[in-house]
Amino acid sequence: LLTNTAAFYSRKASVWIEEDSCPDYLIKAEECLKREKERVGHYLHASSETKLLKEVEKEVLAAYETQLLEKEHSGCAVLLRDDKTEDLGRMFRLFKRIPSGLPPVADIFKKHVEKEGVTLVKQAEDTAIQKKEAKAAAGGGKDAAAAAATSTEQVFVRNVIELHDKYLQYVSDCFSNDSLFHRALKEAFEVFCNKGVAGSTSAELLATFCDNLLKKGGSEKLSDEAIEETLEKVVRLLAYISDKDLFAEFYRKKLSRRLLFDKSANDDHERSILTKLKQQCGAQFTSKMEGMVTDLQLARDNQAAFESWMGDDDSRRPKVDFTVTVLTTGFWPTYKFMELALPEEMVSC
Q1: How far apart are CA 207 and CA 118, in angstroms?
Q2: DSSP β-bridge partners for residue 200
């Protein structure tokens, strides 16, 4: 029975592989496996089921896996390109049944995601160059060119986040969260997340993106939930970046500007992203940044106490508005030290 079954499906499959597209072939393969299973239920001993199905899998799936995956107009890469999630799900289910059937699928998935990501990098590069040239031609000068580059980079990070969302969804829906596909996604993102865009490293791009989200009047007008969600995704992308310390440097510089110039839109968001970074990269990574946020909180309390102390006795009130921010050495980025000669009114403060 086993020999005859194998021969029967071998003949069938050799015809299908010539005539059918990859999705059609897989639908037929799934149908065969289902029918064989039913047959065993009708008139064979249950112990035959595994042996029979093994023969069908060997003849219909294992024998033609490479050919199916690489079929010209309907192979795995084409299904990914055309977002055929149902067919991809079927492909995963069927090739999971055969020995080492999944690694080739995961490999094609990885290459596809990598290709899409590299295309995004290339697009961002081209746009940045075009904008620079257009601004220069219009006589916009350096600042305008910098602004153009920034908006391009913002769009780039946004696109990478969307790409990650899309393929993470694929991993969970089509490939039922298989660790092989999680690894493929990670490896693909590591390739293009470490390329620079328009002279900026990806660590810098992410820090700037966060800055834009978190500062008052940033270009991103989002609800609190949307900001939280986006921060979560940025931190997830950070996992793929090899130079995390560089991100920390850029982030601290931007954070210090937001805090010292009172540009930060919302303290809760500031603390929230630090919590997320801490979970992702460890307490050491965020200790200085957390110190900076705490410093400002303390400075506000000090200032309030100082105001009330001046209010107790009017003769204490200086002639100029006076605010002090005491910062902890070592938490903040280092600034150039300047000797200042203060006028009389300020000395008395």
Answers
A1: 20
A2: 197
**Could you report the per-residue pLDDT of 231-289, keeping only the tens digit for each?**
999 999 999 998 889 999 999 999 999 988 888 888 888 889 999 999 988 889 899 99
**Structure tokens belonging to residue 253:** 């510089």
For the residues 160-169, what does the mean pLDDT come to? 94
Mean pLDDT of 162-170: 94
Name the one residue in this structure whose structure tokens are 């690489």.
70
Q: Give which of 29, 17, 31, 28 is closest to 72, Cα–Cα.
A: 17
The average pLDDT across 227-234 equals 90
* Statement: residue 198 has pLDDT above 70: yes
Whole-angstrom distance, CA of residue 148 vs CA of residue 138: 13
Q: How confident is the model at residue 322 (pLDDT cuts 50, 70, 90)?
A: confident
What pTM was estimated for this model as a whole? 0.85
Instruction: Tell me which residue has tokens 């492909």.
Output: 91
| Phi/psi-derived region of residue 26, left when phi > 0, alpha when psi is between -120 and 50, beta in every other case | alpha
Distances (CA, A) of 330 to 101, 252, 296, 298: 54, 12, 15, 16
CA dihedral 107→86→81→153, nearest 10 degrees, is: -90
How far apart CA 262 and CA 113 sit, in angstroms, is 40
How far is the C-alpha of 228 from the C-alpha of 222, rounded, in Å?
Answer: 10
The one-letter amino acid at 69: L
**CA 263 – CA 216 distance, rounded (Å):** 5
Q: Is 108 helix (H, G, I), strand (E, B) or coil?
A: helix
Counting Cβ atoms within 10 Å, is residue 281 exposed (0-12), middle (13-18) or buried (19+)? Answer: middle
What SS3 class is residue 195?
coil
Confidence at residue 173, expressed as pLDDT on a 0 to 100 scale: 93
d(CA 199, CA 218): 22
